[in-house]
Structures are given as C-alpha cells and as structure tokens.
Amino acid sequence: MVTGGSGASGVAVARALALAGYRVATVGSDRTRITAAAQQAGDGVTPFTCDLTDFDGVRQLRAEVGAAVGPVDAVIHLVGGWRGAKGIADQSDDDWDFLERGAVTTLRNVSRVFFDDVAASPAGRFAIVSSTAVDKPTAAVANYVAAKAAAEAWTMAMADGFRRTSEAGGGQAAATILVVKALVDDALRRAHPERKFPGATDVAYLAAAVVRLFDAPAAELNGARLRLAD
Q1: How far apart are CA 55 and CA 60, in angstroms?
Q2: Where do the structural domains in the chain lie, given as residue ranges?
Q3: d(CA 182, CA 8)
Q4: pLDDT block averages, 10 residues each, the chain of length 230
Q5: pTM of the predicted model as reported, rounded to 2 decimal places
Q6: CA distances from 75 to 38, 115, 126, 142 (A)
Q7: How far is CA 36 from CA 22, 204, 210, in A?
Q8: Where in 78-227 does DSSP place strands (E)?
Q9: What class is the 2-227 domain?
Q10: Is residue 133 a contact partner of residue 145, using CB atoms and an 8 Å limit?
Q11: φ, ψ dihedrals at 33, nearest 5°
C-alpha cells in the first residue's frame, strides 16, 4: 500500500512496485487525483480514497483494501509536506498544524491500523521518507524538522514492535526510514530548467530503493535509517 499516492513520488513508487510484480493499493485524499495517479502508474495499481488524519477512516480503508486487493504486506508512507519560515519567532501554528497532521498524525493512524497485518507478513515492510535536515536542524525549518523527527521516532518504535513480534515467532517485518535532502521529478525539472537541484534525489531513484527493500533481509532493514542519493 502506497500512501500519498497522488504525488510524483507516489506515482513513481506505485509504478515501480507494480512493474516488479506486486499488487499495489495507492491511497490519496482526493478521489479524482488518486484515480488519475493510479492510471498513470499503470496496470496492477488500484486507487483508494481516504483522509488519513481520520482514524476511523483508516480503519475503513483497511477493510476496503482487504476486500479488493487482499491483506496488506507492506506500507510505503509518503505523506508529509513542507513549510519554512525565517527563524524561530515566526514558526506559525498554522504551519505546525499542517506539518504535524501530514508527518505525524497520518503515520500514527496508518501504522496503528496496519501494524498487525505487516507484522504477520513473511515479507512485511513499513517505510517512511524523512529529511537530512533532521541531522542538522536550522531555525528556519524548526516546525518541519520537529515533525520529521517525531515521525522518525515513531517509526523506530515500530521497528522495536516488529522485532518483538519476530522474536515471538511472528513474521519477518521491518520498519525503515529513507532519508533524502529533497525529492525532484521530471515535471519539476521542466518547470525550473535554470535550477540544478544539488543533492536532490530523483523520485525514480526513490522508487527503485523501495523495490529493493523487499530483497534485503528484514533484520538488516529494521530500524535502519538509509540515506539515498542518486
């Protein structure tokens, strides 16, 4: 299951997983956009609509995906967003609420609802995308890095949960953090031909990295923070 499936990274990841032979459920909050994104991703990708900030809505999503596609073995959580400011004093409450909902609330809801499914899978994977900014926070992005750091902490706690499940005889699941400086796609490059996007990771490279998660041993991935740079 790919959440945040309407964006460029969601389309790229869904397409790469489908081409690798996986059944893909892609999720977005707008029915028209997620339907178009699934069509763009290609055969084998089924769209679902859900507001992931609504816990009951996520529970309903689990039932819908289970009925249409089957139990979820993996979640690639691509919901987030970015807001910046000038410094600490002008970090606004509106920006914090937006970032907390996108980076933390959606993650908490999706992971709580789908944790048992992923944990029981023989190839369970749960991955988020985080930022190198967490390594060296700056005042201008204090809200953003605080939300990303909280999401990373939650994901590390999931890794502990998967480890405990595995030790108790459950599946072989892993929670992993994929770290990028920024993400860029062809549309953004075309819109800004004057920019070089130094250090940015192409969404196609991210998608390939996601596919590789299923080839690596869970023990190596669980709790790992993997820096991506193409």
Answers
A1: 9
A2: 2-227
A3: 13
A4: 96 97 97 97 97 98 95 96 89 95 97 97 95 95 96 98 88 94 72 65 92 95 89
A5: 0.93
A6: 16, 9, 5, 27
A7: 19, 19, 22
A8: 125-131, 174-180, 183-184, 201-202, 225-227
A9: alpha beta
A10: yes
A11: -70, -40
